[in-house]
Amino acid sequence: MSVLQYSSAKHGPVTLITIGGSLDAETSPKFHAKIKGEIEKGAKRIVCNLERLDYIASAGLGVLISANDELSRQGGEIRLSAMNEKIIKIFKLLGFINLFKIFENDQKAIDSF
After folding, report:
1. What's the burial of 104, exposed, middle or buried (CB within 10 Å: 0-12/13-18/19+)?
2. Looking at the DSSP assignment, which residues form a beta bridge with residue 21?
3. Neighbouring residues of 52: CB distance < 8 A, sequence distance ≥ 6
4. 78: exposed, middle or buried (C-beta count within 10 Å: 0-12, 13-18, 19+)?
């Protein structure tokens, strides 16, 4: 059974979402509902901290991409922060490394908006 940890906090106009565990076919629907809820509450600038993410499958990447597309239509964007080496390798392997703006820590990502 896959486990996904999720928390969110506001930093001024930016919503910081911290994701941990596994973002796969089993946990992606839950994550999709959470991030969609943030967008529906008015979040337009989202930083996703992936430091504690152990694994991301194509389903999880799909959620990030569709949420980013939705935000783009509203003038917003998702930025990623604190990606560990394992997750960076997956992004590179699947060719998704250039789809997002990626920062080494939350503060740099927040300040980039």
Report:
1. exposed
2. 4, 53
3. 5, 18, 19, 20, 21
4. buried
Residue position matching structure tokens 């509203």: 74
Q: What is the distance between the alpha carbons of residues 43 and 35, in angstroms, rounded to a whole number?
A: 9
Prediction pTM value: 0.94
Q: What is the share, in percent, of the chain residues with pLDDT greater than 70? A: 100
* Residue 59 near residue 87, CB atoms below 8 Å: no
The DSSP secondary-structure symbol of 24 reads S
pLDDT in tens, 32-76: 999 999 999 999 999 999 999 999 998 999 999 999 999 999 999
Q: How far apart are the first and last CA of the chain?
A: 36
